[in-house]
Batch of 4 targets.
Target 1
Amino acid sequence: MIASSVTTPRALAAAGVRWRMRRHSHAAVLAVLTLAGAARLAFAQPAPSQESLARCLAALRSSPSARRIADSTWTRHVTGLTLDTRIIEQRDAQPEFKLPIWDYLAVMVDDERIDDGRRLMREHRATFDTIERRYGVDPHIVAAIWGIESNFGRGMGSFDVLRSLATLSCNGRRQAYFSREFLAALRIVQKGDVDGARFLGSWAGAFGQVQFMPGSFEWLAVDFDGDGRRDILHTPGDALASAANYLRRARWQSGGSWGMEVRLPPGFSGRGEGRKIQRPLSVWHTRGVQRVDGAPLVRAGQSPATKAGLHLPAGPNGPAFLVRENFGAVYRYNASEAYTLAIVHLADRLRGGAPFVTPWPTDDLGLSRADRRELQRLLASRGHDIGAPSGVLTVRTREAVKAEQLRIGHAVTGRPGQRLLRALREP
């Protein structure tokens, strides 16, 4: 999913943006597949300049934390780095709109990603089997992370990681954090795990097929193929094993599930509940909560003392879930409940599971990537200059959507859904 104009989930987390769901019917997340979803953290500060960047990097070089960086590494990869004003624009932008959870899942867990994931799991079956044995992590979860973080390695970002992190180290909030990440990136290059001349990733410094920040890479990346390099950019085995190792360290419970979709009894209020408030399944059973297929909450051989928390991403009128510790492990990979739900749902679909049973509380569901491309072709056929259909909701696409919404008589929001797509299909 990560194109150069797209903000990644890991990049948003790295920038300190915790894009969680509001737990009501208008739940929304930051749009990670649109230019409008770029994280904008507005604050007053002096205008950045090349001179200020040079002074900042010189001060960083003289700090104790930079002692592990050889002079030759610094000279080759830092001397001459220039300010990347695109990073400033990404960082300082306020979100122009947010994706409802049904929009987010429509594009994250679409038929294309499911089909690609199943095919790639067959192609890399030996790798996935070995990773499962070695780390005890569900391979479908690992594949889902691969698919959502980088569209299975197809889109890892096109920003120069060293330049991005240098810019963020010397401008704006969290400079201490990004300075640590910048030095970690230099150590990675110095060690030879990544070629500094081709070190590309997201605007906030996350990189590779599973989008690690450099500090996480140093701590948790794995040389799965034993070639002496931990190459999460070009080697799927290294990337997938690194993600599994991350989840294992995030307290993934081997053999356990992430949770289940459930049906709430009439009038049930989820007030005061949440994924962190873990209660025994026996308590949920007493309160009338059932599996969505009507089966008992506690299956044969399962302890009624098993704990789970109630997760209502769109409020009590939408799909409901009892989530367990493994849901929390995925959440620790990227601190977003929407992202976590997308990962576990995609994993279920990859193993042959069905879509959620309970419908989302909306009469205008979201668009898959194929739907978005069709929408863009239809907009172009009506004379809108939006460029080649890409599935990315660019500024020009949103402006064209607004124009068509105004023409048709829909609410002018710039958000395209199934209702607009159906209207544009009509002659």
Target 2
Amino acid sequence: VVALGVGVGHYLDHVPEEMIAHARQLRTPIFEAPLSVPFRRVVQYVYDALGSSDLHHLRRALAVQSRLVDLVCRECSALDLITSLSEMLSIPVALFDHRGTVVALGDQSARAKRVAACLREAYQNVDGSVGPLGFIEVDEARFYYRQVTIYGVVERVLAALLPKASAPGVVELALEFAGKLVGIDLLRRREQLLSHRRRRDLLLDDFLEGRMSSAETADRMGEEGLDLSQPWRLVMCEAQGQAVAKGANLALNRETVAFRTKLLDTADELLDECGLALLSRLRGNALDIIVNGDYGDEESTRKLLTALHSRLETAVAMPVAIGCSTASSGSESATRQDHQAAEALQHARDGSGSQIVLYEELARRFHLLEDQSSEMLEALYERLIAPLVRNDERHRTSLELTLRVWLDQCLSTHRASEALFVHRNTLGKRLRRIEEIVDVHLDRVDDVVDLNLALRAGDLLLKSPVSGESGRASLS
């Protein structure tokens, strides 16, 4: 505070007009005080006025913070939080996600929407670099921003418009505090979502492994909105991308988590839009989904899976393979549906046909494996295929692939040699070597059928969860 005080009543009765005129020219405040008013009283009054103003701002900031904390404690939505903040500060406030999409707007008026568009545009123009003070000056206004960062990643941006002439103190404190509350709310909701998904993962795992009684299955599935007395199918989706190897850096792991979360969220969102009850779990780059609804025919199922396939490929920007079991009801067929979906997924991922395969579309000759136990499939595979795989690993050969291609080419030596890019004599030597290793004769129908079924059993064991940890590892 700068002012000239003149004590009157001793040398002067009043401040002279010449002093007043000169003070006006200097733009300096001037006041007169009688001898009965000490200057220290004037100074004390100024101090009290300034302190009162600061105390007012502090009380207002605390009131805003208290109100926002109450909203968070009541688990109100981000919209309620931003609306209350906008009302208390009497300024437009908006909340964006990291892509610039409006998550919440303090006022739904046309003006507030225009302001939100300006706030977003200004933030994107500077690529989020708002400086240490957190604002951008545009014409006669200041755009204030507070970035909400979780685990080093900007998840939300809180933005507000304030005229330059306004006192920003309370607004800055309120925005800073509100940003922290938004971050806390995001973390809380994320933990709730993760807890819910873990519970669903365990439920789906128990169901497919047959660990629950029929009554317990009905109760627990009912809690998730599924009615297994109605038709249901097991759908397996797999993104055809490279999995993250062990020891990958933290940033890459974050990208992988975001990618897999997007895969799960996209599938859940589409099926919810279709009004279908579902139970899903994430395994690496793959999804297992129980879809429950009155749609047992192949045509409606393929239409649904086509929409799901399109949505997933758009979301993750890579090819997606989908395998689907037949329609079933009740809980007794869970293991069979698991086998079916795994086999359909194997056909979808091999690249030789459609990326969407329904089990009922597969050749009937392979369906006799669907009710077999894991032990039986393992024994068949170990007897006829595992020796070839071990020989390939030991001697760097490709006998298992040779057998698979030869069977796929309907036992045609000519077509198989062309598919493998080898001479017919080379193919013949490989086939004779296969006969020696697993003690079969490829000119006997029974042996050829056994080999074909053993290959299919191996596909199921290696690609479906029923095979234990090795199956899970291959899917992830």
Target 3
Amino acid sequence: MLNNDLILLGAGGHAKSCVDVVELENIYKIIGLVGLPSEVGQVYLGYAVIADDAEMSRLASLHPNALVSVGQISSPDLRIRLFNSARAAGFRFPEVVSPRAQVSRHASIGAGSIVMHGAVVNAGAVIGENCIVNTHAIVEHDAVIGDHCHISTGATVNGGVRVGAGSFLGSGAIIREGLAIPAGSFIKMGSLVVRIHPEQLIARSSTES
């Protein structure tokens, strides 16, 4: 019998959004959350923080699936550490897609990635592992999103764009078609990215002339 138990790795605001998507998708049963030792016993939307990450191996032996449920803004390091630690402990990582998202059957979603409400992932797009495609984000045709990226609320990744691993695209950011965004890039909210400088990403606010 298939065991659809799911552990959320991380407690906080983003975990609440993950709970909402997992519940609506109605494939996995949330058992509880992993958090800091000081967070054990706290409850998020009816689900308790049942352990800290020192207990990864024990939890993986009982509940096979995990999803990283901490957000990512300034750095992907915590998400990467949790993902790698949980994988080493034996967890599997399903892809989680909101029924309210629009994902082409010709797109690819990597292990441990979550596509939130209202997001669009079009044909030929490839989403790497452990990514967040947040509410109302758009990933256009043939775009490739590297592992451990966060495409934030309302961001638009146009056709053929390549986003390097560990990058963050802020809310409302727009990336022109065909660009290659270097790994580890941080693109501010509302930026319009129109070209790549040899030394650095060039991003200007969409409100600038």
Target 4
Amino acid sequence: MAVDRHAYSAAQVLRDPWPGALLALGSVLVLLLGVFYPTFRSMVTTWSNTETYTHGFLIVPIVLFVLWRQRHALARLTPQPAPVAAVALGGLAFLWMLGELVDVWSVRQFSVVLMIPVLVWLILGARIAWQMKFPLGYLLFAVPFGEFLVQPLMVYTADFTVAMVRLTGIPVYRDGMYFTLPTGNWSVVEACSGIRYLIASVALGTLYAYLMYRSWRRRLLFLAFAITLPILANGLRAYMIVMIGHLSDMQLAVGVDHLLYGWVFFGIVIFLMFWVGSFWREDTPRPLQPNAAGPQPAPRSRGSNHLVATTVLAMGVLVAAPAYAAWIDREDRWSAPDLGALPERVGQWQLTDAEPDWAPLYHHARDEWQGSYAAGGDAVGVYVGVYAEQNRHGKMVTWANTLIERNSDDWRQRSGGRG
């Protein structure tokens, strides 16, 4: 019996579930971007304004490049919607809403980025999502995260630098993050912490390990190397800059060349890291087993109705959390409390007209007191902020509320630890 090859190909195309699945996935991803646009915009703003996270602009192109490399392996799989993934999607939407209510950007950003692999799982199925696990997981590097490491990295850098200077035989006096050599004064600030080198090294090292190794053991070992090396190298970089400044009588490495030396040194460190890693590379692709029967028609999926229902379910979950958050914050449902005026006298303390020397940088309080009291030659400042019945723009626990201005030169931490 003769078979019309062209007719067979047309029938195969009609049964191919990929076009419809990709259309559904594209639709929910566009909706995700639109509904959570402020969260995505906050990430891009951070990439633009903070040098530590400028690598975020490269994450999506890298992910698309890796997916393109996987296109042949993905084409052999058949999309099968997985409605069970809607539970995970709902959990992430709820987590985003909690981040919205307490105004924590990192929670919102991680939530929306994690929604992307869950949507792939929901629309295309578990097998395809697992095949795409690396590029989907690599999206997490787009989230501006890691500021909590700045302080411990600054302490490490100061400890390492001072120890190496003393080991060199040069006397040095240290006071917190400040230290003095016979030729001049130095300080370890946020830019000296090496956080930007560490984050960039981990992002590049993760991609390198995926592309160059096949075994998980080698990948994890190289990733540990990519984490450890920039931390050690940053301490050495700080020591070298201090020594250059000291030996040149503070003529070199004290201005813009300070930063130039840092980036040049980091480039050399990354080159050495990749060079060392190349000795154990195993990036030769595994040979593909030829299919003697030729391309086979795709297995029949559960039907377009099932895909449409799953897509509608995903859209409903995506819209629900922002809609509920907007409903909560649509208006102030309670009148702001009124503290009235500051009491003229509290025990032996008398209210004065003097302006307080300091007040915490807390914003959007429902009402507040601020003033100065004096008694027996002593003076104190008083600040009371009320955050009862908080609304969207009246939260106490937010990143913006701090005791002192970040990066302020007027204040210095003298000690740390548990209270």
